[in-house]
Amino acid sequence: MEDESLLQCFGAFIRLANSCSTGNPETDFVIEELEVNPFTCSAGALVALDGLCRFGRPQSVRPPRPQGKIDKLLHPASIGIIGASATRMNFGRITLKNIIASGYDKSRLLVINPDGQEVDGVRCAPSLGALESKLDLLILAVTAAVAFGIIDEVIRTDAVESVLLIPGGMGETEASREPARRMLATIDNARRAGVGPVFVGANCLGIISHPGNYDSWFIPEERLPRTQKKAQRSSAFISQSGAFLVTRLSKNAWLDPAYMVALGNQNDITHGDMVESFAANPDIHVIGAYVEGFKDLDGLALARAVRKATAAGKQVVIYKAGQSAAGGRAAMGHTASIAGDYEVCLSVLTQAGALVASDVSEFSDLFYISDCMREKVVRGKRLGAVAGAGYDTVAIADSIQVGDFSMSLAEIGPSTRERRVAILASKKLDALMEVRNPFDINPGADDEAHLLCTEAMAAEPDVDSIVVGLDPTSPMVRSLQKSARAGFDIDSPESIVQTLPALVASCPKPIVAFIDGGPLFDPMADKLMEHGVCIFRSSERATRALVRYTEARLSAARLRGEGVPGV
Question: Which of 26, 314, 515, 528 has its CA 20 to 30 A from that of 444?
Fold first, then answer.
């Protein structure tokens, strides 16, 4: 049987699915289940021996969320809060304090409370109906039972453009599903009539928008400092779980996104909506998303948004939870999400251009490296490696294949080889080490030797990217915050901490460094990260992250129809 027969068969299934699906407004019936099993081959053609097809009536499709109102959510000119107590430190009060502390103008803030009492110097309105002008954002920090009632008032008054629903118990529990269904029907009917806000949540931590100058999380800053780590923030982080956002940032403050959006149970705004919004934002280059599950048709919407972002030259990094049956059930209980078939999701999102992480730790690594490398040129998959420990060079070589994709260890040309021999000779290491790739430069190599060898590797035409070990435990490297040897610390002008950032900034190729050592060398890592060097804490993590990132960049280039030299 020829490939053409298979393509015709698959094409027919796709046309049938598109025709008989809820996404087709012209259809009277939708396919609820379709199975053909087995097929056999006869005279060069596919013949179905058995099959099953079940039809049903199409369900109503929810109207789309207006992107203009999502922009109001992210950059509100005015914010109101319902649920901020004037007498105790409840979630609403913490949220109000965090918004004030983030620098948001108090004159554009409003507490809505029937008693008319100011809270922390913020003026009060007795009700939504009493507002003098429409709010861009309303935060509901109340119980679910109260929130259900307030939403009717929100729709009736048309007083706000967007709403953050903080409370849980609005669709993720059995008792709350019917009230949530009625709430969604009210929202959808209003939207079809051209009125009503967009909603984020419920069961939602909130939003931090640095460009919008507000922080609505109810996590006190003493438990999660909001210190800026990057000179320019260029990434966005979307998560169904607020705790996932908090723990990732707590463990790696250098992720430091411009926007952090907790979606909760996606009663209204979905992953697809937010990725589409950030795909259109020229200041956002990397989009990270933690996904537990999808609302109806949002898996396809997310894939389309990922493709838009990829076409615009952005990188989307996704961790899809609920990979097992048990995980899927847990996702349903957490945010009322249908996890779906993981293998199908992985295939669709990858083909759309997403970089899909296999676990939580890999997600953090891929989100981090994507932001660090966004301006670098990825020409191919030929890797150059430098380290002062033999086991690191072996670990790098063992890590160049991840899944079905493999980088190759670059062949080093004669001029680069001669340049390295001269470097080793100048350091009296030429009798100890042999020039090769990966290049083991010996624990006797000092800061300058690390820099010069990395520079030589970066100058090699047949090298596309570089991994370099900075060997913090070597007595020859200035890797300590305070050394017993005078002038032999990370603040020394000769330290690799001071010299490597300039090379990394000037080199168009990706350079990833690793510091394989304990907490003693955290200051070394922090200083380098502060100056834009992509740092990992082990050789295998650095290499695997670079391999996955390279695969995604090359794949995205092919999707955009760009030529990829060196592959």
Answer: 528
Residue 399, Ramachandran bin (φ over 0: left; ψ between -120 and 50: alpha; else beta): alpha
Residue 274: is it exposed, middle or buried by C-beta count within 10 angstroms (0-12/13-18/19+)?
buried
Contacts of 411 (CB under 8 A, 6+ apart): 382, 437, 462
Domains contained in the chain, CATH given: 3-56 (no CATH), 65-204 (3.40.50.720), 227-374 (3.40.50.261), 382-559 (3.40.50.261)
Q: What is the pLDDT along the chain (567 residues), one digit of tens a residue?
A: 678 888 888 899 989 988 998 888 889 999 988 888 888 888 878 888 999 999 999 888 889 999 999 999 999 999 999 999 988 888 899 999 999 999 999 999 999 998 888 999 999 999 999 998 999 999 999 999 999 999 999 999 999 999 999 998 888 788 888 988 999 999 999 999 999 999 998 999 999 999 999 999 988 888 888 888 888 899 999 999 999 999 999 999 999 999 999 999 999 999 999 999 999 999 999 999 999 988 888 899 999 999 999 999 999 999 999 776 665 555 555 555 554 578 889 999 999 999 999 999 999 999 999 999 999 999 999 999 999 888 899 999 999 999 999 999 999 999 998 998 899 889 888 766 677 899 888 888 999 999 999 999 999 999 999 999 999 999 999 999 999 998 899 999 999 999 999 999 999 999 999 999 999 999 999 999 999 999 999 999 999 999 999 999 999 999 999 876 555
